[in-house]
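---------- Forwarded message ----------

FYI, see the UTP--glucose-1-phosphate uridylyltransferase record below. Original note from H. follows.
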Amino acid sequence: MSTHITKAVIPAAGLGTRFLPATKAMPKEMLPVVDKPAIQYVVEEAVTAGLTDVLMITGRNKNALENHFDRVGELEATLLAKGDKEKLAKVNFSTELADMHYVRQGDPKGLGHAVLRAKMHVGNEPFAVLLGDDIIDDRDVLLSRMIQVQLERGATIVALLEVAPEAAHLYGVATIEATEEEDVVRITGLVEKPAPGTQPSNFAIIGRYVLQPEVFEVLEHTPPGKGGEIQLTDALQTLAENDIAGGVFGVVFRGRRYDTGDRLDYIKAIVQLAVDREDLGPDLRPWLKDFVTTLE
């Protein structure tokens, strides 16, 4: 088994129905967040953490994802002829980011099923899973820390975020025990989207995982759960309660996370990222302040 993690899996087969009609003909992962598609932020995060072998789990009508990370000769030639080196560099950057691979999920049977589709590509080594709805601010460290903890403990690692009690039912929620490290907890149980008021804690799983390859065998025997889908959370529960392949630990994240899977949070993410940009922030911040004064 490899001791150095190089592979990232990005499930991107969802229909994006919350963003219809914008996602009728365009994958939700290609919706722009300021001036980059949401999926590019996720791939960049993987590459920054040293994961240059990226497998994207796609579905029908997702060709735009492959096109975005591929060469566009005509566009490159046009920009070169115009001498627009800045835009050409941006186009080439996404093309050269990572060694990209693609496989279709086929039947939409849930996140666990999507991860299982990566089995042949990943093989018998630990790997990361990054969900495209969560963008982690590149000024805050999460995935690199999770990889470090995985290498130290030889276990499955998930990212945890403390959420408001009234929001816990929207997530997979963990039962946790403290460890000798302040930002690391042992996970003894997991439940997917518990009924309001029944959650075992306020620590929710967000879309970053570093998984042991044993998860594939567990997923193959995991029956459909919440929503009739094969839930990754259920497989993680099996790993945790049976202490399989080192069990499951959580890295508690207290940095900036932007949720692009909800329409309102998507708008907030754009504003939050834009105000901190050197090229946009100086003009946007005073405009926002003036605009807020016009609101009742």
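H. also flagged this: Residues 7-261 form a domain with the Spore Coat Polysaccharide Biosynthesis Protein SpsA; Chain A fold (CATH 3.90.550.10).
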